[in-house]
């Protein structure tokens, strides 16, 4: 039973380590303060427009689907970013 627990613990550590490594290796294509011209492709639940930069989701308030807007990145998270119109 002890070997089973050790094996399971090692598997869990490996899964966590690899997940963290993948997240660290992920290339976020935007940085806070950068400016872009984007097209709003979708609408989020909260009413913000959704643009994508190299597949990376950017939420832009006060926009609607089909708008082409100039934006400035205001906050970057691991899987998405927030921007404002400029």
From TrEMBL:
It comes from the Archaea. Residues 29-86 form the TRAM domain. This is Deoxyribonuclease/rho motif-related TRAM.
């Amino acid at each position: 039973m002890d070997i089973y627990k050790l094996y399971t613990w090692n598997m869990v550590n490996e899964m966590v380590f690899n997940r963290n490594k993948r997240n660290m290796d992920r290339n976020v294509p935007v940085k806070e303060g950068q400016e872009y011209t984007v097209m709003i492709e979708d609408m989020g639940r909260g009413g913000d427009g959704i643009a994508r930069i190299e597949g990376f989701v950017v939420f832009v308030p006060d926009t609607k689907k089909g708008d082409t807007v100039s934006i400035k990145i205001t906050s970057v998270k691991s899987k998405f970013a927030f921007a404002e119109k400029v």
